TrEMBL record:
Annotated Basic residues bias: 556-568
Organism domain of life: Bacteria
Entry-linked InterPro entries: Aldolase_TIM, Glu_synthdom
Annotated Basic and acidic residues bias: 475-487
Record-annotated membrane-spanning stretches: 6-25
Protein name: FMN-binding glutamate synthase family protein
Keyword Cell membrane: no
Record key words, sorted: Membrane, Transmembrane, Transmembrane helix
Pfam families given in the database record: Glu_synthase (PF01645)
MF (Gene Ontology): glutamate synthase activity
Gene3D superfamilies xrefs: Aldolase class I (3.20.20.70)
Length: 577
């Protein structure tokens, strides 16, 4: 009986609480707001909680939190996923649609998006698509399952995967059909067997989010079999050096390129660098080294973790980098010989296509692929842990990552992106990615238009003649000048030698009739009677508009007689020759 009474009391108590909250919650909130508001409205600014508002607005929430982390640790801060600066980007560029003056390509026609990296190499890398998976290192950054998922995705979608500067698993190499080995400033991943297996080798000089310096990875962050793959002892720190060699020289780097080309059997040997203010000098140096491709990483690039000073305060925007790199390769007459791969803050099909239009041969995808393979699996980590904890090698939920789900979502992302890019190419009236160029772009930002070298949308689109004029076609002007000089010389020759020699000269040039070149000499105002006669004929009797109709007829008859005489002289001279 007593337990029943206790149960009834408990039910009544919960019922009372529920009724109270249903009825009295408004009253409770009102009291809380009233008391809190009274404090906020009456306390001095120095003691008021709202002092945080101007403080955060002055410094920013992110900077405030990062400075507190520095104050707590006293060590260099390492921020994940790159810079948070609002860099100038590709958004103000738009493509020109084909509608009336040019029709869009039929939807049934296939669009060619195949690319070749290192076309001058003995064994160029040929890919079905222009999107490649960038170097996200195993052990240092990604977990084993995440790396294997990316390798399988690369094979499934007809592209290549970059090893990154971490350890290289044999299973990953066997899974990927096209494998790019990143030759980094490390002691691992340098085996001759691995160099011979690689379809392309990338010497890593730097990256957008980390500049060109080295780093250290503590033993506790190298979990799983990453330590064994990298050849490290228990408790040993993984070191990424600042240079490839001690007392490094230019000849050391040239020898390195030659040796890698020899060992690999002629696969493309390239270089990766972070885009900086002296980008053209860096490219010139790489050209002298004899590389087959250059991978330029813009300032918006991400990484597993980097000091904010390197990701925020070094480098240049990806947009600036691709334009400058492409222009300089063209200036050095290396366009089509040395391939250009671009990365850094590129997430959407439109951004991929714009970079390719600006001169890149292919695009590296990093963060976009990372979030694509995570997809709905991030809910295994959030809301109490960051979503990357599902893919980082030291992540708390890395064991819950499902490789099959990652392969499915990652492959879908690449497939959808390529189809969307093909749709964009059709909308421009093109049939191949190779047809897409900077000429297909405009910008609604005047500064971007001027910087990139495309029309500004507020102004009428210039025609071809105006384009040549705007580009300052000096060669065309010089050619016109030479033509004018040649015409004047010919006219003088005709005046001095008479009509017979002039007609002979025209005969040798293949102009037996009244030619356009003779008409140009007339425009120079020469006094030769034959030339003047042609000028009158060519201009339809200009200069005689004030004469009477009778005089016009007489003049025309004289011209006809003189024309017949000239033709007879011409034919006679031809027969003699």
């Amino acid at each position: 009986m007593i337990p029943i009474i206790n149960l009834a009391l408990i039910i009544m108590m919960f019922g009372f609480i529920i009724v109270f909250f249903l009825i009295g919650w408004r009253w409770m909130i009102k009291i809380m707001v009233k008391k809190t508001g009274k404090i906020i409205f009456s306390d001095s600014y120095q003691e008021n909680i709202i002092e945080m508002i101007p403080g955060f607005r002055h410094m920013g929430i992110q900077k405030s939190l990062e400075n507190n982390l520095r104050a707590e640790s006293g060590d260099v801060l390492h921020r994940p996923l790159g810079s948070t600066i609002n860099w100038p980007h590709l958004d103000t560029l738009t493509f020109i649609p084909a509608q009336i003056s040019l029709f869009p390509t039929d939807g049934d026609e296939d669009i060619d998006v195949k690319v070749t990296i290192g076309p001058k190499a003995k064994k160029p890398l040929e890919l079905d698509i222009p999107l490649m998976i960038s170097g996200m290192a195993y052990g240092i950054a990604l977990s084993e399952e995440a790396r294997l998922a990316l390798a399988e995705i690369s094979k499934k979608t007809g592209t290549a995967i970059n090893s990154g500067e971490g350890g290289v698993m044999q299973e990953e190499v066997d899974t990927a059909e096209k494998y790019i080995l990143q030759f980094a400033k490390t002691d691992w991943a340098k085996e001759e067997k691995l160099l011979k297996r690689a379809d392309m080798i990338e010497i890593k000089f730097g990256q957008g989010a980390y500049s060109g310096v080295g780093g250290r990875i503590s033993p506790e962050n190298l979990t799983g079999k990453a330590r064994k793959v990298m050849g490290l002892e228990e408790g040993e720190t993984a070191v990424i050096y600042d240079h490839f060699f001690e007392n490094q020289t230019w000849n050391d780097l040239k020898d390195l390129v030659s040796e890698l080309r020899r060992i690999s059997g002629g696969v493309p040997i390239g270089a990766k660098l972070g885009a900086g203010g002296k980008l053209e000098e860096d490219i010139d140096s790489l050209i002298d080294l004899g590389v087959d491709y250059i991978a330029v990483d813009g300032g918006q690039a991400a990484t597993h973790s980097s000091p904010p000073v390197l990701s925020d305060d070094f480098g240049i925007p990806t947009l600036h980098a691709v334009v400058r790199a492409s222009n300089h390769l063209e200036k050095r007459k290396k366009k089509g010989e040395i391939s250009l791969i671009v990365s850094g803050g590129l997430f959407t099909p439109g951004q991929f296509l714009k970079v390719l239009a600006l001169g890149a041969d292919a695009v590296y995808m990093g963060s976009a692929m990372l979030f694509a393979i995570s997809h709905s699996q991030v809910f295994k980590a959030i809301p109490f842990e960051p979503p990357t904890q599902i893919v980082w090698n030291e992540g708390k939920f890395k064991n819950k990552f499902n490789r099959e789900e990652g392969v499915r979502s990652g492959s879908n992302f690449i497939t959808a992106s390529i189809e969307e890019m093909k749709m964009g190419i059709r909308a421009m009236g093109k049939r191949s990615l190779k047809e897409v160029s900077k000429k297909d772009l405009v910008s609604y930002d005047e500064l971007t238009a001027k910087m990139v070298g495309v029309p500004f949308t507020f102004e009428p689109y210039p025609n071809e003649q105006e384009n040549q004029k705007n580009q300052g076609s000096k060669q065309g002007e010089e050619q016109k000048g030479k033509q004018r000089e040649g015409t004047q010389q010919e006219s003088q020759l005709a005046s001095e030698q008479g009509g017979k020699e002039a007609s002979q000269q025209r005969t040798m040039q293949g102009n037996q009739n009244v030619t356009q070149q003779d008409e140009q000499t007339v425009s120079e105002g020469q006094s030769n009677s034959v030339i003047r006669m042609k000028n009158q004929q060519d201009n339809g009797g200009q200069g005689q508009t004030k004469n009477t109709k009778e005089n016009e007829k007489q003049q025309k008859e004289k011209r006809r007689r003189k024309v017949r005489k000239v033709r007879k002289l011409t034919n006679s001279q031809t027969n003699k020759d």
